[in-house]
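Lab channel / #folding
Pinned by the channel admin:
"Please post every new chain as: sequence first, then the structure tokens as a reply. Keep commentary short and put observations after the output so the thread stays searchable."

First post following the new format, from NK:
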Amino acid sequence: MRLSAAVWPVAVTFGLGAAGLCVPGPVGDVAAFVWLGLFPGLALARLLLPAAANSTRWTLGVALAPLTSAVAGWALLAGGQPLPTAARLVAIGGWFLFAGGEARALTRREPAPADAPGDRAVWGWALAAAAFVALPGLLNAWTRVRSDSWVHAGIVWEIAERGIPPQDPRFAGLSLNYVWFYNLFLALLGALRPTSSPFTYMVVANACWAGLLVWLGWQLAWALWGERAAARPALPLLLTGLNAGTLLLWPLWFLRALAGEVRGAAEVRRILAGTHWDRVDVMRQLCAPFAWMVNSWDKFLLGTALGYAYLLLLLSLWAGARWLGAGAAGRGPQPPSWRWLLVAFAAAAGMMLFHSVVGLSAIPVGVGACLLLSLLASREPRLGPPGRPLWLAGALLAGLAVTWPYFRAISRGWSPDRSGVQHQFLHLGWPMAWTLVTACGLAALAAWPGVRRAFEEYRVAGAWLACWALGMTLFALVVHLPEDNETKFVWQVFAPLAVLGGPGLPALVGAWRRRLGRAASTALAVVAFVLPSALLLFGFVHDPSGATAPETLRAPGEPALYAWVRERTPVNAVFTDHSSRDVLLVEGRRRLLAGTPYAPERAAFPRAALLRRRAVEADLYGAATDLAGDAACLDSLGAPAYVLYRAADFAGAEPWRALEADSARFERVYAAGDYRVYRRKS
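Reply from TO:
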């Protein structure tokens, strides 16, 4: 029985991998995820922590798998291997290393006191979180492709079709000024099954990572408290505690009826008319009025690297907690393993590779927390040796150092002389303070007893995490990013508070019950924690936007056009499309002259070049009075250039007639239905 208990995870994952190779359609795509989403990370976890308990090693392995696969794939691509070959080598190599390591220790290991045990409650919360994330993607196709998911899919095809380092497919000729290891991971997955869709892997990855979020929270909470009674409550708080209770503040929106250009009943009607509970925009109603939009589930319901970067953040906190140990008055001082420094190093490097906003905030804050703890330990011996936090700081900085060339490469385009973006990075404003208070207030109340307990009992890991939360709060208050992207810091403040809140959440709910009675306290808990998630799920499942969105709506003849673009145009072709459409990024897998309506602040588009390209588009789709200048701009790309016209855009006008007449510069290469494509002659 003990042998079979150790064998069945290996057998199940191998069965999934085999199905991913043989079963056609989305089912096979889902099963194939294990080849790169599990096996390479589990192999690395065996090397890093060979003696760890199964739950510890599997949590670490699943957390490291995308990072391991992407880095190994990048190395093979840099060595000259094509993408499909690199994907297969990483997958097969990961499987053999994983299976070989498991075969050497088939009997189950008893967990050490510092290892978190398996727990049915953890499994329940993990499965519930994964299902919550997967349901919208299964029931509403629009949620699979909306917002950033579409652009990230375009970058995936950029890597799959044209390699690394990628250009920005929205702006042909421009090196991508954004992190792209997440897209490389998806491109490697897609290379295993050429008929698969990156949107499928986005949903599968998000569901997997939502479940992993629970397990990382459990591991971190156990490293702090070492008891189920304190660790279990941290899990529901981590999943539902952000913005808990802010629905009770929703009537504050009506304060706008007291000031502004429109007041009174007219403003009340406008507020009510603009409130949508049946679509994705419900996220904006679940925050406090006048606060930034933040949500616990948002980045796990979207195809973006941020959700995985948050997991690496939790991984770095877990590694730090394991390295620092429980403390003298906790479970007794635990001899730290230097291997946890390697985990902290990998987590820091992964944050920088997958989402540098998280890395460049979490790493300095982590180092600052280490320095503060070292100072406290020099005055209080029961907090452990002062040098131990400094080793952790060194591991975090090493992770930053090895990824610095990559960060420099993707950030070079943000210089003001190229992008024209002038930005003040230090700024103190009331919106962030209000957002932190309202979004993290309930979690902070629950965390306070845990913070006191950590310092009173000299729990080193708990004290360090409290210092970390304080540092992240100060960082969030003073650092300002382009397009208000500092809102990403709110979850980073909330997560450690949720873990510290494990001991305090039952006491907080108990206080409600004593003061309000059972019925009222239950209603309050439902409104604070359950109702926001239920409304969010309803909005995502019901959202009708897919019926009219350009990502999902297809006019007659449009699919045939995109098939022609994919099959009959050079892989390095550049297209011009009216109204800055970006559909061709995914459906045609081709770059665009200017496929974005946004300013340079969005992705460091060169301001002068962006204005020039928009002028070219305005002329091509308007009066067409400067075809010589337009052709010169297209020629400067150094790639085959195409101009796409959709008759429905012009209400009877025919701007393509100018290109028809200028046969010396342009030739028609496609005409079917309402669509015409012209190629710039060499």
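NK: The radius of gyration is 27 Å.
TO: also worth noting, Residues 327-333 have pLDDT under 50 and may be disordered.
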